[in-house]
Amino acid sequence: MRERPPFSPVISLLTISSVWDARLSAALKDLSLTTRKYGLLAHVQGTPGISFSELARRSQITVQTAHAAVRTLVDEGLVADSTAHAGAASDLRVTAKGERTLAEAQRRLDELDATFASGVPHLSSALHGLHEEPFGF
């Protein structure tokens, strides 16, 4: 019989993350949002006029990936870039449709958060703030 590997908090966190990412993805699917698109849209809403460079930095993606993702959000009518031409600084803003979509996505996320917190309140408390200031970086 094989010995069980030692407990790893990193592996546990990755497993939990995968489960809840799938739940969030399912909750956002009919809004045509993925977790990444939701995050990008929320960053644009939180910082109107955000640059592609800053959006990429906050989302931990490349600038090229940010451009492609924002193009999708623009095509879906969720984001507007009033200066979308070569060489110009971006002026990204969430549209009215984007605001409605984000509000519904937030409502659904609130439900998931409540479910998670009721199941593991100590873990929920321990995670508070880590997405903004992860330790060890």
Descriptors for this entry?
2 strands; single chain; two-stranded antiparallel sheet; 137 residues; elongated; mainly alpha
Topology:
Elements: H1 9-28, H2 35-46, H3 52-59, H4 63-75, E1 79-81, E2 92-94, H5 96-119, H6 121-127
Antiparallel strand pairs: 1-2
Question: What is the gyration radius calculated from CA atoms?
Answer: 18 Å
Structural class by secondary-structure content? mainly alpha
Average pLDDT reading: 90
How many helices? The count is: 6
Order the strands across the largest sheet as they lie in space.
1-2
Given the C-alpha coordinates, what overall shape results? Answer: elongated
Beta strands, count: 2
> Main beta sheet, described?
2 strands, antiparallel
Beta-strand fraction estimate: under 5%
Proportion in helices? 55-70%
N→C terminal distance: 39 Å
Oligomer: single chain
Low-confidence stretches: none
Helix/strand order, N-terminal first = HHHHEEHH
What does this structure look like?
This protein is mainly alpha-helical. The chain is 61% helix and 4% strand. It contains 6 helices and 2 strands. It has helices spanning 9-28, 35-46, 52-59, 63-75, 96-119, 121-127; strands spanning 79-81, 92-94. It has a two-stranded antiparallel sheet with strand order 1-2. The longest helix is centred in the last third of the chain and has 24 residues, at 96-119. The radius of gyration is 18 Å and the shape is elongated. The mean pLDDT is 90.
